[in-house]
């Protein structure tokens, strides 16, 4: 039974606070991956690096287990993030070639 | 031009450190949403709450703009997270009814 003091409103306030922190983290993460995208474009490296991705999925799966987060959820979120990163890297490479 | 000192390895290390923090945040976020799932099941509330989701997308869009994160990316990630949460809430409701 969820205690009355843990009202829906109070729990949602916690979610909102956590989302503030998560968005700040992603802002910094994409700032760095965009630099990586430029580095790749300058050095003619492919936007997608399957070996790196494999390492990342392994790390995140282990971290999820350590923190008590469902591993499938952690992997699904990372997959979405990597999709966005690769799309950005392709756009950066295109802009670099046409500049 | 990306400076040489910002090597690919160094930038990837930053990404890994940020991912540690993000996974820890999600672990806490899903711990709370699972409590919300139980609260909803106990109070016979639907797993999906479109009004709440609309408020969340609005908040996250504003936060992304404030932090300099691409708003479409922020919304895509939130969409994936909410999908996982709603799936969890449905499972929790099912377990609650059959207990």
Tell me about this structure.
Two copies of one chain form a homodimer. The first copy, chain A, is mainly alpha-helical. In chain A, 81% of the residues lie in helices and 0% in strands. The first copy, chain A, is built from three helices and no strands. The longest helix of chain A has 35 residues. Chain A is flat, with a radius of gyration of 18 Å. Chains A and B meet through helix 1, helix 2 and helix 3 of A and helix 1, helix 2 and helix 3 of B.
Q: Secondary-structure element order of chain A, as H and E?
A: HHH
**Largest sheet descriptor of chain A:** none
Strand coverage percent of chain A: under 5%
Instruction: Assign the structural class of chain A, choosing from mainly alpha, mainly beta, alpha/beta, alpha+beta, or little secondary structure.
Output: mainly alpha
Low-confidence stretches of chain A: none
Quantity of strands of chain A, as a count: 0
Oligomer: homodimer
Biggest interface: chains and residue counts?
A-B, 49 and 49 residues
How many helices of chain A?
3
Q: Can you give the helix content of chain A as a percent range?
A: over 70%
Sum this structure up briefly:
With 99 residues, chain A is mostly helical.
């Amino acid at each position: 039974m969820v205690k009355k003091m843990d009202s829906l409103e109070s729990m949602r306030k916690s979610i909102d606070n956590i989302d503030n922190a998560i968005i700040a983290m992603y802002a910094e993460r994409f700032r760095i991956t965009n630099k990586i995208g430029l580095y790749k474009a300058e050095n003619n490296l492919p936007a997608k690096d399957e070996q790196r991705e494999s390492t990342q999925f392994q790390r995140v799966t282990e971290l999820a287990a350590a923190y008590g987060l469902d591993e499938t959820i952690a992997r699904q979120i990372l997959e979405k993030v990597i999709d966005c990163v690769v799309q950005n890297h392709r756009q950066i490479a295109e802009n670099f070639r046409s500049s």
